[in-house]
Amino acid sequence: MLLRCLSLCRRPLVLLLCLLPMASFSLELKGELVQGGMLVGQVTPGEQVEVMGRPVRVDDQGLFVFGLGRDAPAEIKLTHTNGGNEVVTYSYAVAQRVYREQRVEGVPQKTVTPPPEVLERIRREATLVREARTVDDRRTDFLSGFVKPLEGPITGVYGSRRVYNGTPGNPHYGLDIAAPTGTEVFAPAPGVVTLVHRDMFYSGGTLLIDHGYGISSTFIHLSELLVEEGQQVAPGDPIARVGATGRATGPHLDWRINWFDVRLDPALVLEQFPAAK
User: Fold this and answer.
1) pTM value > 0.85
2) Which of 182, 2, 218, 172 is nearest to 70 (CA)?
């Protein structure tokens, strides 16, 4: 049986691996092998998969998903174990990206150099977000595809190196969409709300929706949250309103997508996995 690599065989090394006949192995991938990309895979039910040494959930139908971070290496290893405990390791080339620098002026200085008395609050809030992103639900809502949570000018992109008020900060991991305060934000895909926080130090009004298998959306700088933890949402459901809370210079939505702790590019996810019209 051939190992099939849908649209991902973009370099000679990968193409060679995709065409090698592997008796008793079958693997398909959909998505793009690029930093920030999301990949959905299919193996024979009962088989096991590891990506860069990390075990990946494989469901009863052989479905799995994983993501590549902003700084994913130029080559990754995917290990595939079949029902007979035969193991094969594939090497995939990952397209490397060049990230621009974005200088942001006028953010509250306390969010650039926070005073000591808020450090414990920052750590506590970071733990809440980190724990919400550990959810490993068996739902496959992410397979429905994604739509933009609102329309508006794009004012910030994934991966850019941020400089706040002249001080270098962490890279930006979301897609910034500008809109007036109070503009409704809609669920980009089906899911379950896993975190609602109305006032985090950096992100202000913050909302997380789990789409299954570790894929989640985060929405920040919100002025109002319209859902509660545990609530199920469908694509297009109103979930929040745009604001300028936390570290922001004006009203906008910062939308982020994760695979557990791996930060993905929402623009790539929209392009590679659009919701059916």
Assistant:
1) yes
2) 172
